[in-house]
Amino acid sequence: MNSWKEKCIALRKQGHTLPEIIQMTGKPKSSVYGYIREIQLSPARLQGIRKASGERIRKFALARKGKSVRSFKQFEEWNMEKVSLVAHLLFDGGVYPDSGCTYNNRSRALIKHVEKCMHAVYDFEPTRYTNPLTGVSRISYHNVALAIYMKDKVRKLLQNIYSFSPNLKGEFVRAFFDDEGCIDYRPEKNRRSIRGYQKDIEILRLIQTLLKDLGVESRIVLPNEVIIVGKENLLRFKKEVNFSSGVYMNGNRSNSRWKKHTEKRELLKRAIQSFKS
């Protein structure tokens, strides 16, 4: 019996694993295995190997938690693009730390806008889906680390928006009314108002405060509505906020007054022009 074969057998009987013996002897796996395959490790040694393996897996999982091969750009400075992105994810989207970020809307203009804003942070394309029955489109970014980061950005935006510049406040309010708002323009009933809907009363109060900062008076109608009325308030809203281009009132609804897709900003313009001087 050659000396290195005896060494392999002795090492195995001491409780060493196949990889350990290969490393210690410098011999190929196929040769070492042939000498030690009939020599079983003790139950205590096997238990120790399983425990060590589990600890390595847990350590690796903790190190990987919240990380992704698809990295993204973090930011500290808020600008129009970043405010709009996070606001749209808040209002008509979703940030799910266990799966990713989504945004839903019927407006192709808003879908493209959110995609453009996201590209400033994340270079990868979203998954796209359009509901054939409702026409609502959804874009999804399946990145857990990105979602965890954006969840924190939503929190920080809601905390700090009060102290932002008028332009950034206006961008936040525009995102809200683009996603959640409409124009109630019925001159024959003397109705000219901008209305926004949100289940979270704290969000409604925030929007009301930001509108006031921009010189626009509004009122909250419980349980879920903020309303702007009056020519001066509508004029001020148009100047400081307005609706985005390409955002339409849905003309396909059974209760649609206009029976065709009409831009919200165009209806706002008509509502203002219809006031008697």
Task: Give a brief rundown of this model.
Helices cover 50% and strands 16% of the residues. It is α+β, with helices and mostly antiparallel strands and 277 residues long.
What report would you give on this structure?
With 277 residues, this protein is an alpha+beta fold. The chain folds into three domains: 3-64, no CATH class; 80-159, Endonuclease I-creI (Roll), CATH 3.10.28; 173-273, Homing endonucleases (Endonuclease I-creI, Roll), CATH 3.10.28. It has eleven helices and ten strands. It has helices spanning 3-13, 18-25, 29-36, 43-64, 80-91, 108-119, 144-160, 166-180, 201-213, 231-240, 264-273; strands at residues 93-96, 100-105, 127-130, 137-141, 181-186, 191-197, 219-221, 225-229, 248-249, 262-263. It has a four-stranded antiparallel sheet with strand order 1-2-4-3. Strands 5-6-8-7 form a four-stranded antiparallel sheet. Strands 9-10 form a two-stranded antiparallel sheet. Helix 2 (18-25) crosses helix 3 (29-36), helix 5 crosses helix 6 and helix 8 (166-180) packs across helix 9 (201-213). The longest helix is centred in the first third of the chain and has 22 residues, at 43-64. It is rod-shaped and about 110 Å long.
Which helices and strands occur, and which strands form pairs?
Elements: H1 3-13, H2 18-25, H3 29-36, H4 43-64, H5 80-91, E1 93-96, E2 100-105, H6 108-119, E3 127-130, E4 137-141, H7 144-160, H8 166-180, E5 181-186, E6 191-197, H9 201-213, E7 219-221, E8 225-229, H10 231-240, E9 248-249, E10 262-263, H11 264-273
Antiparallel strand pairs: 1-2, 2-4, 3-4, 5-6, 6-8, 7-8, 9-10
Helix pairs in contact: 2-3, 5-6, 5-7, 5-8, 8-9, 10-11
